[in-house]
User: Fold these one by one.
Assistant:
Number 1:
Amino acid sequence: MPLIRTKHDRVIGGVCGGIARWLGWDPSVVRVTYALVSFFSAAFPGIFVYIILWIVIPEDVY
């Protein structure tokens, strides 16, 4: 399955939902993990990476 941003499992941009679907994980686990990693890395890099992924990962067309 390709890495795509999901339309149905999104909170902001669908990045974490798309990564969760790609990995076969629960989206909540990916969101909490991403938030914790972002928090412990001074938050700004996490937000910057999320915006880049939002731009780079194509959106689900279905």
Note: The two ends are 14 Å apart (CA to CA).
Number 2:
Amino acid sequence: MPATLLLEQVPDEIYLRLQASARRHRRSLNNEAIVCLQAVLAAAPQPAPDQRLERARQLRDGLAPQVFSAHEIEAFKHQGRP
């Protein structure tokens, strides 16, 4: 049985592009969204969990170790806030 999916806060640009694509293909908005999702998910091979973990470890190992003081951490938390 197909599942129901509700999308909220879709950016206007994406919604308008999806709507135009649905019109072009003579599909409902719902069917166009399903076709788009199928195309994207089918094209993107999903790495195995151990490959993802290894990639995460490589990324982490590539970062320079950093130590922050409590004062710096507090400043980061409030950075950019009024």
Note: The chain has a mean pLDDT of 92.
